[in-house]
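Q: My collaborator sent me two sequences in one message, no labels, and asked for predicted structures for both. Can we handle them in order? The first one she listed is below.
A: Yes, handling them in the order given. First sequence, followed by its structure tokens:
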Amino acid sequence: MTTPPRPTAHAVICAPHGKPFLSGAVMAACALAAWVASSSPAMAQSLVELYQSARAFDASYQSSRLQFDANVFRAEQARAGLLPTAGLGAGISRSNFDNTNPSVDRSFATQNATLSASQPLYRPGNVANYQQSQRQVEQSRAQLDAAEQDLIVRTSQAYFDVLVAQDTLTFVQAQKAAVAEQLAFAKRNFEVGTSTITDTREAQARFDLVTAQELAAENDLLVRKIALDQLVGVTNANPKGLTLPIALPTVIPADVSSWVAQSELVHPSIRQARSGVDIAELEVVKAEAGHKPTVDAVASYNLSRNPSGTAQSAFSTRANTSSIGVSLNLPLFAGFATQNRIRETLSLRDKASSDLEAARRIVAQNTRTSYFGVQSGQGQVRALEAAELSSQSALDANRLGYQVGVRINIDVLNAQSQLFQTKRDLAQARYNVLLGNLRLRQANGSLTPDDLQPINALLAK
């Protein structure tokens, strides 16, 4: 037995809550919309699919990812300060010796090669530099996480913008069909003498207004689609609509303090600032190392040959020299540069601590704002769902009143406008709640691509 397809957000205007309210031209338009809706999901893309496309295409995210890779390789360079170094040097020269008493005229060549190696034994500045590099990698990771969260929100915003524009156009077209039907009804009544020319002119004016709104809605949809295509790198991207009726996800945990507490651990801005404090602390250690000695183990091996003799002898000579030892370097005075460098790093450390506290406050405020925004949005959805039922009842009553002569045409037109405006507002509110959930997780820093899955489950199959 085949399960019938669930209605989408684009079809709800035809039969809200299972009760049709339009007829004639409107029903024909709805039939066409239903056919389009039933045939398009096979070619439509889900939010997760378009996000994956954006992740591989978006230049801003790719820039952040490549910057992270570069920072990882840069950090590895700091390891060289703890590892041994070795070098090989070689040279050849030719000299001419000319002496008049006694008369000696000789040319000779000198060949030499030196292999040297050094291993740091005590270099506190190098150790601090390596530890700094690890903190800088943590900073880069936080920056990449922030870029990924931003891409999730930007993709979702562009996705819902297209759905909003599609819903708006669908509602405007349905309203246009309803107004056209009301205009035809007013003309027939005028012809038979049961209404005045005023009803016809009011309906014509409303029809012209809705026609202008339709043109604006078509242009807005085109612009939104272009923006989505440019973000995800897909030509003519066709996002799937919501399946109705819909149960919007609730905010869990339902406690703003829990969201704020979580942000302290995971938010990229706080992680960056915390790593900044650690880096500043290590910069103080590096500055203080300017007063400390350095100790290195050194070794070298030198080979020198004179195949045609030297200035003192005509015989070929060869000398091999090797050495191994420990090199100590103790700074004594640097013109107060080290002392002032320490003072500078101490001030920068205090600044980093202030930056961390500022980041915590900003994140906490944004998290609270986003949390209450989602709560407010959910309340608006419930209120608009009730308003939709009331507006539908008001339209039915006005139509009946117009038919029996206790209501005029403008009452019906106003009731139609109110109903379609309520439907547009309700669709917009639903999208705002879904996007608000993502923005809440971005505000407290816990947003991941997995958070798109619950929204994906609400889309048409």
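Q: And the one she listed second?
A: Here it is, processed independently of the first:
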Amino acid sequence: MDGSRRDPDRPRRSRPVRVAEEIKQWVVERDLKRGAKLPSESEMIGLFQVSKGTVREAMRILEAQGLIVTRTGPGGGSFVGEVSAERARSLLANYFYFQDLSLADIYQMRRALEPELAASLAGQLDKAQLDELQALAERHPQPAQSPEEEKQQHVASLEFHARLSELADNRLLGFVIGFMARILTDLTVYRRLYEPPNVELWQRGRRHQLDLVAALRDGDAVRARAVMASHMAGAEAMMAAQEAQIMRQFMAE
């Protein structure tokens, strides 16, 4: 496209950024896996017909993204890396930090996805995995006695869902659900949604988690889906009420 007709609202990418994209495309086209060695710097210069400085800056960009790993010494060089799920969630969280997400936004997604995750896991988990989920659900057998303990219980409840997401065969489904658990944890702490203490929320959440583990042990996908759907609906209503009460207290002060 003629540069004079470029979309004025689209930021112009620097040459190192463009070369970084070309390197990624080069790796994808060759189906290179984690640990595969990349061409040397001089070979990169020839491949992409750019200067040494541009190649070095492009490689720094890819290294910062976690897509390549550079090692020095004998046998060193640049190698294909792999972005961890935690790093990807952190980068995505940086984007949504400026999007003013609401509880309704998050629960709209959770209501649609988490019951399906629960159904997909029924009969698929081994005893050790089920026992781990059971222990997470039973971590707090009594209602909280302080705001700090209340916060810990909220975070622990979301850790249960994060662990479920890690067990998903569908990696995309698991990643999205794990990301929602992450941002909901951040919102809960940042907005202090654990105040004031809510015994009904603790009781209902704990019961649903225990019922879900039982359904998963029985391999009952229909019951697992129904338990999670009920859990999502109730949790959304109670968290929204919690948020509204906090706002009323703030306005009164």
